Amino acid sequence: MRPVRPVADASALPSVTYGSRSLMWWGTLGFIVIEGWTTALLVASYLYLRQNYDSWPPLRTPNPSLLIPTINLVLMALSIIPAELSSRAGKRLDKRGVQVWLLVFSIICVAILVLRWWELWAIGVRWDTNAYGSAAWTIVGFHASLLLLDVMDTIGLTLFFWFRRLPIKTFSDVSDNSFYWYFTIGVWLPVYLIVYVGPHVF
Amino acid sequence: MSVPLPVDQTLDSASVVRVAAELEATWRDRPGFWGWVTSVDHKSIGKRYIITAFLMFLAGGIEAAIMRTQLAVPENTLLGPDKYNQLFTTHGTTMMFLFAVPMMTAMGIYFVPLMIGARNVAFPRLNAFGYWTYFVGVVFLYISLFVNTAPDVGWFAYVPLSGPAFSPGHRVDVWAQLVTFTEISALCVAVNIIVTVFKCRTPGMSLNRLPIFVWAQLVVAFMVVFAMPAVAAGSTLMLATDRAVNMHWFNPAEGGDALLWQHIFWFFGHPEVYIIFLPAIGMVTPIIETFCRRPVIGYTALVMANVATAFFAFGLWVHHMFATPIPELGQSLFTAASMVIAVPTGVQIFCWIATIWAGRARFAVPMFFVLGFIFTFVNGGITGVMLASVAFDKQVHDTFFVVAHLHYVLIGGGLMPLFAGFYYWFPKVTGRMLNERLGKWHFWLFLVGVQMTFFPMHELGLNGMPRRVYTYLAPTGWGTLNFIATIGAYTIGLGVLVFIVNAVLSARTGEVAGENPWDASGLEWATPSPAPPYNFVFPIIVNSVHPLWETNVEHTVVTGLRTDRREILVTTATDALSESRHVAPDPSIWPLYLAGCMALLFIGSIFSPYFVLVAIGFSVIGLLGWALQSTKKIEPELVQLPTGATAEGA
Lengths: 202, 650
Prior knowledge:
The structure holds 2 protein chains of 2 kinds.
Chain A: E1 4-9, H1 23-50, H2 67-91, H3 95-121, H4 131-163, H5 169-201
Helix pairs in contact in A: 1-4, 1-5, 2-3, 2-5, 3-4, 4-5
Chain B: H1 13-27, H2 32-38, H3 42-71, H4 81-115, H5 124-146, H6 171-199, H7 212-244, H8 258-292, H9 299-313, H10 328-340, H11 342-358, H12 365-387, H13 390-396, H14 400-430, H15 436-462, H16 479-509, E1 555-559, E2 567-571, E3 578-583, H17 590-607, H18 610-630
Antiparallel strand pairs in B: 2-3
Helix pairs in contact in B: 3-4, 3-5, 3-16, 4-5, 4-6, 4-7, 4-8, 5-6, 5-17, 6-7, 6-17, 7-8, 7-9, 8-9, 8-11, 8-14, 9-11, 12-14, 12-15, 14-15, 15-16, 17-18
């Protein structure tokens, strides 16, 4: 190895960073792209199958119910408030704020997940009735797995913040958790419109 | 924590040795078996990926040799149709999913951090998890082969043949879930490579100073991100659910569509070829530079060609479906796209030829393989342009012509550069050189074997011999060419055997390599061979694409990273300016544990959907363990912070 000459010192650089300066943010973005793209491919496949039918939903298949999905959509929109407030509290290193807003966020998350079960049945047919049912169940079910993942993360963080003494870095994780949640909600809007509203319109 | 080091004066070697010893203590794996299974070092993970993938190459090769023996003479009875079906499916699946893609990404896992001057990948535990998930897939497929349950529907598992009506039993389930394991693994690697390249480069390595190999790995990682979800959706969410819970994605009787599978599969399957090919040609550039003693001609053109190839690769998939009722306009579009992709490939080949021409070429074994690559791959590329024509494609669809084409492309474009890379980087991994004489024997046996095996297949295909038949009748006249192909296959096998002997002997008794045996220019050669657990004592500041060919006699470096914990330097995404310090995780058992949960989830779900719930339950424990481990040693316990404190300053 050649001789070395130090010309810069890194010891004063921060070890806790937020947003695009944090590695975890980039990793989260990577999985957001993967999961968003998977959803897009599933929706494209749903629309591809649509071509095989004259009417949509197919004959003798009821339209999906809009009540539960719409309630859940509103709840998802509301969940952005505690998600954002927990993220902001995290950036302020405000432990009490993070604790409170993560708790509220977790409760809404669980409610959304419970409603998702009824939302699946709101499709109106079973997954094994026809290809329409299969496609709708797969898309909504896949999105449910994304919800489940983030709900587990949110509850885990909430428990940590209430019951453990944590390193400062965890405040940055709160903000990344909210970042992923915005994606989960954002990707749901087109799915809601296509799977639940679409059959009423087309 | 280290004693602060002086800035802007050359360090004495005692200080360097002291810092290296502190880093060694912090970064080394634990000893013994436990240390092996908990390692998160990219070199350990990369090495085991490479070895596992190479074993898969041997397994796939043995399967090919058995098939070639069966086809050597007409009406041979070595294999029956069922065993033959299992063998060609396992051969294709192994080579594509368990050898080629993992091997190419494994080379990235091992070398990208070394080439960009980093201490590890961005997410070391995710990296280990990816490997273990892949390993589960390997074990799963080969157990299934030995218990007569290996998939038998071809590596692209077309429906309706692979659907529940025509393939009862679990053979196709094995295929569908095996694909899931390799997708997860590939996606973990892709995210890791992208974040590592964008955020962990050594200071000064702006994107326009990125080694071409790293560019290729980056482009491929993006391709994986967009290609793998297609096959994930197709195999896991559609085919497996059609089979397990009676969904109807591909059942025309209930409004499903068999062609949807072909679209979904080839939307992944065609980019897959470039996912294999681009990293391989990324290996070619540094080898040509080193052995021609000059920087490559057309750095920007090569990078642009890589990116262009990646884009075009996603617009070609329908050329695999010309025999289906595709509208004429669609056929023309995909014919044009299939021809256009030859342009960026041509640009790269001209850049390499110009570099060889302008430099002073030294023909060591890596260069032999590079020339073998150019020759073989160009031949495969030309038949690819032929196949882009719909009329011609329909004539030779599902014949041995296609088998010849794809092997020319994949062996020429993938394997030849890979072997070049093995000879070139073997000293960095083992500290010893491979034997040149045995290397040349390997090269000539391999090159001649490949031409003997696959060139006659063009003729067989034009004569109408279909692929995937377990035998043929003597009056077809196909016997002679098949016999030549079989002798060629044995020749390839002999060549590979010579390589294995060479690798085993050289790893023990080969010439000691030293830090930079080829006098190459990349950062991976600025550290001992093999590299220590921390890769570099200090992050080296670079000022060009070829840092080791600069005339300065010393490395300018960054100090100040802590040595008592695994601290890495994070830099800005484009200009690679120092930005922050990040604490990388210690060795962990949770990646292996969570890969076990994945095995339970996907293998269990073949038999009962309830395994999904059980696996989620076990995963919760793993995720908690993972999260709690990551909070250790990162910062002191949270203390009462002063009002108005900002996290950035923490």
